[in-house]
Amino acid sequence: MHEHEPRAQFTHMEDGTAEDWKIISQAFGGFARELPDRVIEHLKLLEGDCGGFPVDRLTHCLQTATLAHRDGQDEEYVVCALLHDIGDTLGPYNHADVAASLLEPFVSEENHWMVKHHAIFQGYYFFNHLGLDRNLREQFRDHPCFERTVEFCAKYDAAAFDPEQETLPLSFFEPMLRRVMASPKRSLYKKSLDPQPAEQNA
């Protein structure tokens, strides 16, 4: 599909020229714009996978987002709720870290911290049944996002396992996801991606 696209000529990065990196930068733009499509397709991989829970993992994500939306949370927060468990497929041992890394360029530091730590905080509800300390979250008691993450787990994450509960479809949340992921707030490459003054005034 991409065999006729221009390609850089180097075989080692140290030999790359400005023209090589112009080619790569131009290709990056289109690839980056397709990120929401890839995220949506990856989220769909959770469908049908219950892992022993009362609902499958996609339904859980949709219910979590539905609860947050119905409770009046803003779009960024709702998208965090939607994607908080997207790491289950590739990161079963650190799913929260996977989701947080995906969201980090696009969300506030507070929402990023909430997603990154939600696995420890949700443990309050079941770690004791697994021989673990349910109060592991207490190590973060003095963090500014402690109560925010407690609330996320209590009101949305932990409450989203009901087969009879309202569950808005993925199509409802897709426009939100596309808006939130339209451009990064934080990224190593953000400066090079921002429009130059000449482009802004064109």
From TrEMBL:
Domain (HD) ranges: 57-118
Annotated SUPFAM superfamilies: HD-domain/PDEase-like
InterPro entries for this protein: HD_domain, OP_Dioxygenase
Gene3D superfamilies xref list: Hypothetical protein af1432
Designated name of the protein: Metal dependent phosphohydrolase
